Amino acid sequence: MKILLLIGASIFQVLIVVMFFINTSWVPLVMIGYALSLGFLIYLLIKDRRNREKEEQDDADRNY
């Protein structure tokens, strides 16, 4: 999922540049898509990091 979002964000970056030269009216829509894909990617990364930290904390709390 994260890889697809990175690919999507990269495509949106290219589209912003291409659309700027072709038709500037599409640039705001493409920028919104770019912002949404990056925002969702950041959300997934933060969520994944919190889950990993929680698992590490659970492992540290166990008595071996």
Query: What is the string of SSEs from the N terminus onward?
Result: HH
Using only C-alpha atoms, the radius of gyration works out to: 18 Å
What is the total domain count? 1
The rough form would be described as rod-shaped
Give an account of the 3D structure.
By secondary structure, the protein is mainly alpha-helical. The protein has one domain. The chain contains 2 helices and no strands. The model has no long low-confidence stretch (mean pLDDT 82).
Summed up:
The chain crosses the membrane at residues 5-22, 28-46. Helix 1 runs antiparallel to helix 2. The longest helix has 35 residues, at 27-61.
Q: What brief labels describe this structure?
A:
88% helix, 64 residues, mainly alpha, 2 helices
